[in-house]
Amino acid sequence: MNTVADLMTTDLITLRENDSLAKAKALMHEKNIRNIPIINDEGECVGMLTQREYLRHAFHLVSQFGTQHISKKEQQTPIANAMNKDILTISPETELSMAAEFFIENKYGCLPVIQNDKLVGILTPVDFVKLALKMLNEST
Predict the structure, then answer these.
(1) Which residues are CB-neighbours of 44 under 8 A, at least 6 positions away?
(2) Which of 54, 104, 115, 130 is the most exposed place for a label (fewest CB within 10 A)?
(3) Is 111 helix (H, G, I), strand (E, B) or coil?
(4) What are phi and psi of 95, to 5 degrees?
(5) pLDDT in tens, 9-56
(6) Where does the chain have alpha helices with state H?
(7) Is 36 exposed, middle or buried (0-12, 13-18, 19+ CB in 10 A)?
(8) Is the pTM of this model over 0.90?
């Protein structure tokens, strides 16, 4: 295992900018995930909705409309209103050591993996923990 391609998750769960915050919330809960790449019709990653950004926007909706209207407002609010459009990406050919250093030095929970302008995977710190566990199990 040397490159991001060797470790990245390729079974991707994605949404579109026009999907609702309610749909994103349900998907995060159902799949037990904290990061959802947002893609366009061409498969390009146009943003990322993290659990933190979802919560930030949900708190904003509660402060504006109250808790009794949050479900309705989440259904009416497109992900585009809450997602982070200024995202860092990585390529499949990037050395794993470089990606690991990035996660150590920065507070990112996910890096979209882009090849030929298309989303091909994601890499998270949990992927590195799984790798470490696998290596520990193999050494015993």
Answers:
(1) 117, 118, 119
(2) 104
(3) strand
(4) -65, 140
(5) 999 999 999 999 999 999 999 999 999 999 999 999 999 999 999 999
(6) 4-7, 21-31, 51-65, 70-76, 96-105, 125-138
(7) buried
(8) no
